[in-house]
Amino acid sequence: MTKNVGNIDRIVRVVIGVLLIIGALMGYGWWMWIGVVPLATGLMGSCLLYSLLGINTCKTG
Fold it and tell me: How does pLDDT run across 6-58, given as a tens digit for each residue?
């Protein structure tokens, strides 16, 4: 998979993902498990939705 998620975008995704998962573990709602998605895309550096929309926040060098 081609990397299309930049460094700042990755950091934000990981932080949001972790916070949502912590909220789910604390019992704030089962829907907070959606945090797995931004966490996974942040760790992998690739986002399917970005690919479909033609978005690339990763610097090419």
Answer: 999 999 999 999 999 999 999 999 999 999 999 999 999 999 999 999 999 99
Between the alpha carbon of residue 42 and those of residues 8, 26, 49, the distances in Å are 10, 22, 13
Structure tokens at 39: 């966490």
Distance CA 13, CA 9 (A): 6
Per the listing, tokens 């916070």 go with 19
Six-digit token pair at 56? 């690339």
Q: What is the 3-state secondary structure (H, E, C) of 1-61?
A: CCCCCCHHHHHHHHHHHHHHHHHHHCCCCHHHHHHHHHHHHHHHCCCHHHHHHCCCCCCCC
Provide the whole-model pTM: 0.89
